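Retro notes - structure team

What went well: the batch runner handled both jobs without manual restarts.
What didn't: labels got mixed up in the shared folder, which is why I'm recording both outputs here explicitly, each with its sequence directly above its tokens.

Job 1
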Amino acid sequence: MYLSYNTDRGLEREENQDKVKAGFLRDDISLAVVCDGMGGAASGSVASDIAAEEIYRRVKEGYVDGMKSSTIRNLLETAVAAANTIVYSMSREDIDKNGMGTTCVAALVIGKHAYVINVGDSRAYLMNDSGISQITEDHTYVNMLYKHGEITYEQMVNHRMRNIITKAVGADESVEPDFFELEETGNFSIFLCSDGLYKYCSDRMIYESIYSKNLDKGVSDLIAYCNACGGKDNISAAVIAN
């Protein structure tokens, strides 16, 4: 199993409000979390930092070998709920942090099994010999319009409200994340990223840069490409390959 991750401020933002936390729990078990903060001043970075650290810590400390899938799901959902409570409470107690929140996408890979959870518009992709596919669904206003047939895919990509998310960790008293469970038979990779990356990089570019390639170089190349295209947002990625 291989792991690589990186984050970059980009060229236009004054600070990096993305947070990536990743590591090995065992030789064949990896955990990665990518969060993209929102909020004025430094609030976004506070929210993303709290969420990434809390989710990673709770999953790492709570994981036990031989866990059933249902227990793993509960572990991930409980970790996200705990992070949500902390961020929400802090935003209510400190007026300077009012309204802060963060997206979150996390993947726990155990051998040939992958467990993914997400809130917001940071994404998880599956890559294997057949190609690349998006695992998560964006919690955004434009995606909701698209699902209801009110706008086309082309309109969604360039819509003036494309940056509005409908779910975030810490935005409300409670949050309902999406959960996905995958089982692969051959080689595969789970790729996590913030919107600062996928808004510049096509699925094909991500696949050709990462799958069956040097992961550190692939992640660095994608971030460099985003910056070469303008780097208007923070850029983060994490990949687990098995």
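Job 2
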Amino acid sequence: MNYATPPKKMLILNILDILRKYSDENHRLSAKDIGERLEREYSQKVDRKAIKRNLMNLIDFGYQLEFSESIRINKSGEEEIITSDWYLVRDFTDAELRLLIDSLLFSKHIPYNQCKELIEKLEGLSNTYFKAKVKHIRTMPEKLSENKALFYTIEILDDAIEKKKRVQFHYISDYGIDKKPLLHKNQDGKVTTYKVNPYQMAATNGRYYLICTHKYYPEAVSNYRIDRIVDIKLLDDEPITPVKEVPALKNGFDLPKHMAENIYMFGGESVWVKFRAKRYIIKDILDWFGYDARFTGEDDENIIVDVKVSEQAMLYWSLQYGEHIEVLSPESLRDRVGKAAKSIAEKY
């Protein structure tokens, strides 16, 4: 099959495409290399002077190209500047792209096919050599999350937060044994329609959450997994309840503080919790509760810790770290942990 020779005006774009595909700091191209690829891949035979002229034009157009210069004496005995080792400086290093790709792989809220598409787009920001390094990514397993409207939901929420408008949606509260989603229903058996004041979206524990309050009872802050939100609608005629009118947020919305107090994103009012912990888990305590956790030395092996946290979340955390900690107060939480631990022990 014969292909038509590309017009000369395409030359600069073809050179840019070659730089994108085949060059980086460790893979530099000479004018000869570029010329050979132009002829092989684009059927364009171009002399080195034209290649250099177009490379310089790319720099004038704002592309960040690096190259080396050397001086040689030509046949006329005059000094001539020779350029070589051309490569395109990229917006992201391979290490940065790998970090972004790994973040997608570790996320639990992005549907499989959309995750693959995003990874392919990130791969496209590098060159052929980088793509060869990450072939194993294509073997990632499919995950449960298949809310194909996820990105649309995020767009609507982003728009609502910006415009300070309410949204309404249905919510997947469970899954059947057939792995199909089940929408939350009211006591009368009808699907619940949530109307909320959206304040912030946040990522934690591999999930993406909406932080909000309900229209009819804005006194409590709630957290909803965004991948479980469906049928979302922006309510243009309903402004949100201002943050200053929400009792739990009367001092303003502090996202880091909220995340530290809601380690499992259950929501609900935060309480002060005191517990005894082994000194060797200090790093774990800081990972979960941040540097607002208060430490008091007790002896060479134990410390006393005070944290402000959702009581429901602390119940789960206490069971997770039960071998290494003991809840001291509040008494209600201590009782709940004791009953849960006893119930677990009876099963074994």
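One thing worth noting from job 2: The chain has a mean pLDDT of 85.
We'll revisit the folder naming next retro.
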